[in-house]
Amino acid sequence: MSIAAVADKTVAIFRRDLLSVLRYRWAFMFTVAGALCELAAFYYLSRAIGPGFRPEGLDYFSFLVVGTGFYTFLIMGVHSLVQSVQEAQQTGTFEVLMTTSTQPSVLVLLSAISALSRDAMQLVLYLEIGLVIFGKTLPRPGIGCALVFFLSLAIAIAMGLMVAALQVAIQKGSVVLWALGSGTWLLTGTLFPVTSLPAPLRYTAELIPITYSLDAMRKALLQGATLSVLSHEIGILAMFALVLLPLGLAMFSFSLRRARQEGTLSAY
Amino acid sequence: MARSVAQFGTTSTDAVIFESVSKTFRHRPALFNWIGKERTEPTLALRDVSFNVRGGAVLALLGPNGSGKTTLLKLISTMFLPDSGQVIVHGADTRRDPQQVRRSIGFAIAGERSFFPRLTARENLEFFAALEDVPRKQRRAQSEFMLARTGLLDAANTLVMKFSAGMYQRLAIARALIKQPAVLLLDEPTRSLDPVVTADLWDLLHEVSTDGTTVVIATHSFQEASAVADSVAILHAGNLLAHEAIHPLNADDVRSLYFQTSPSDGSEFAVGSWR
What we know:
The complex is a heterodimer. In chain A, helix 2 packs across helix 5 (104-133), helix 5 (104-133) packs across helix 6 (143-170) and helix 6 runs parallel beside helix 10. In chain A, 44% of the residues are buried. Chain A has helices spanning 3-23, 25-49, 60-91, 93-97, 104-133, 143-170, 173-187, 199-205, 209-222, 227-262. Chain A has one domain. Helices cover 79% and strands 0% of the residues of chain A. By secondary structure, chain A is mainly alpha-helical. Chain B has a domain at 14-25 and 42-112 and 184-272: P-loop containing nucleotide triphosphate hydrolases (Rossmann fold, 3-Layer(aba) Sandwich). Chain B is built from 10 helices and 10 strands. In chain B, strands 6-7-8-3-9-10 form a 6-stranded mixed sheet, with helices on both faces. A 4-stranded antiparallel sheet of chain B has the order 2-1-4-5, with helices on one face. The longest helix of chain B has 16 residues, at 195-210.
């Protein structure tokens, strides 16, 4: 497939998703309201705990906002993809989409990119509102920060493809995602530093790519870390992305073929 | 009735070829049913079915509910893969080269609502046209033409969530035709349509088949089969009982053919329900 054809389909998918979001405007408003409430809760929580608690040398409110904001972005991206597959199964669009002239893997990949782009805009708003309105300033993000962002994005897409494969195979990908989300939320240092965990859980956390994403993003955004300072985390994230992305695509293609064989493509 | 039974040997002009195709659905129990040892018997959907459809021909699939008509259409579309045998569409094997098959087919599924509810009819068509590789410059005109041809032009800018069942069905046909497919698959396309729109759709099918599009249509209506098809295939419990070309034919001919070939072993109720 040519680059022009991929670009053309990308525009079509972005347009579909943008129009759908704009026409579900109340859902968008409630999402914004929910995020504002969450930020206020974090602000008052950090005030209640007091300025003495400085995880990794950072003030607790900034630690929370960047941690939860970036974690939510990554997990929501995975969730958006699984939800779009689930909705397509329920409405009947999935069978139709999987038999168009566009390769299913390309279609799902582009849909994931579209969903994550929307979540990225929400992340920027969340961070801006969270840190600026509550009196903090963000350093100008550098190339290291951008690399952390895009590698984390690739990992989130890979995880999304894996859970979407489970959704196609067992029709309960959202349950798997819920379990996965709860586990990673506990282990990856979203609300408190990983160093607070007991040794076995700390070692488990080191096997989860999001742990490195959050750590690197905090260093980049709150401490202005340069590319060389972030090179360790970037290297690990790149390895995760290199392994997980082809694995996610292979899993999705396999489960799709199995569903065609078993006749369960539209089952939900 | 002037009836000629064609010899359906495979030729290079065949658009769709089924060679000894069988399909069985094995129902895997849900997790808790599996723990509870709940088991259901597999369903034999198609058994050793062989036939072919000449390019530009219209084949009507007739048979009671559960006879295998939709399974057969889904096997052509690559939504399902055969357990054994081969399905060839325009020279491409659905198992070995599914993407090539998908490029040549357009499929309108029965009674479907498979559209994006918060997009208009035009937006939905243009979206699917992009996925079907319709060139960007032709998309608007092509969508407009198909909306007009299916009587939906006045509703082009209406969100499809407000559509009636018949409008959904017409939009599904418009979508199936938007890329001008070589093979058009229709599953009960007139189920929710009024007589005037139904007659208009039959005209449209004549037009597309005259232009060289091969049409395979599953229907419960003898009248529809006689109006659009130049051959009929009769399915019963996954078996292909007959595949005959009949010229000229009317609804009574098709009805007679059906009752001559269908078994009379307790299946009358199902047959009678779609007479």
